[in-house]
Amino acid sequence: MSISDLKRNIQTGQLAIDLSPDIETGNYLDAQKWGWFTTLHRERGKSKAHQKAYPLRDLPQVLTLVGQDRRDVDWWISQAVFTKPNRRKVNLAHVGVAFVDLDYYRFPGLACLPESEILDRVGLHCEQTGIPLPSLIIDSGKGLQIKWFHEPLPRQALPRWDALQKGLVKSFEPLGADANARDISRVLRIVRTTNQKTGRQARVIWVNTDYDILDPKQYTFNGLVEQVLPPLPKNAGTGRGLFGGVTDPLKISAAQRGFSLNRGMAIKSHFDSHIACKSLFSKTENRKFLIPMRLADNSEQGCYSCP
Known about the structure:
about 300 residues; 4-stranded antiparallel β-sheet; 16 strands
């Protein structure tokens, strides 16, 4: 779907898609795979929230129970899958979605605008910055959740996923992006549940698709990174600048991907926006070795830091 299609849908009022929770979460939580997800809930009038972890196979039943108790309780769900029943990033299994939480209501100049105008500004911002249109947009009952679906990434790709999140949040700051809602452990509101602060129900209001609203657009992770993150400096590795006069092309290549040059050992450096694997240099052969990444379905894929 193009920018013009988004604007046309806004102008004709075709916004309320209202996808069910199982369809929306099914784009990043697969009940057929192994792992754990977490729900967080808080009863109306209570200050304390309670969380519980479930195996992915229980996702359909959990969403059914949430649907039966959605009017008087706030409900959130993790956006990533974990290897243990918690949301610690060290236990990440895989993640298949990038997101931005727009708290536009905090900005006086935006709070008074209708939802259709905010959506229009999101589309215009994507057009002006070159960022791909989201896969879908959710009205959380107070703000907007913008999501880009991509293939499941393993834990080794977390630094680069973090960099993508930082880039998206930074870009959408003028529209109220919440800088504290970009981490891998984040829970976001479940669609068709009620925001107890406003009494409004969270719902999908726009889906990026050319065919079926049940099939939102899926992006490649590398494609998103290339369009969101700034490119590396063209003069990297020349003179006494960024890499201190190092001229070895293999070492420069590793440094561009986020590894230090000390003793030939690849250690994370300040280029964390381009890290996803570990690379080692052999002192005798000056050869780079890449550790291939194994995805959630046990298939191997090339290093996400090395396009």
